Amino acid sequence: MRALLSCLLLLLMTSTAYAEVVNFSGGWARESIPGAANGAAYGTLTNTSKDTLTLKRVSSSVAKNVEIHTHVMDEGMMSMRQVKALQISPNEQVTFEPGSYHFMLFGLSSLLQSGQSFDLQLHFTNGETQQISIRVK
């Protein structure tokens, strides 16, 4: 009986440790064009915690590499730049959309097809990892 109670307590503590770090909504990606090796994903992240969070890395089984990118004006030309770490303040909302922040998917394992879904894993500097879902349109 004592062993059973210990296991239940451990399970409860584990589920608390893996609570969502951020709220993610509206996840989407465009369907790949034939021959495309790369893609992009979008959605909205909201930090619901009382701490500033730093998103340091993103991974996925559908791409060899995933990077956080943004668009910047450089000498009169718009260009994409990788964001090495994205800080999200408490209650801050960051929108990933065309022409702004986005998750860049490099080396797709297969073309993204309308109606399918895939996951991204968000890795934070505090050691937390959160899985989010992206729907292909």
Describe this structure in words.
The protein is mostly beta strands and 137 residues long. The protein is built from one helix and ten strands, in the order H-E-E-E-E-E-E-E-E-E-E. Strands 1, 2, 3, 4, 5, 6, 7, 8, 9 and 10 form a ten-stranded mixed β-sheet that branches. A hairpin with an 8-residue loop joins strand 1 and strand 2. The longest helix is centred in the first third of the chain and has 16 residues. The radius of gyration is 18 Å and the shape is globular. The N terminus is likely disordered.
List the helices and strands and how they pair.
Elements: H1 2-17, E1 22-29, E2 38-47, E3 53-59, E4 63-74, E5 77-82, E6 86-88, E7 93-96, E8 102-108, E9 117-124, E10 129-136
Parallel strand pairs: 1-10
Antiparallel strand pairs: 1-2, 2-7, 2-8, 3-6, 3-9, 4-5, 4-8, 9-10
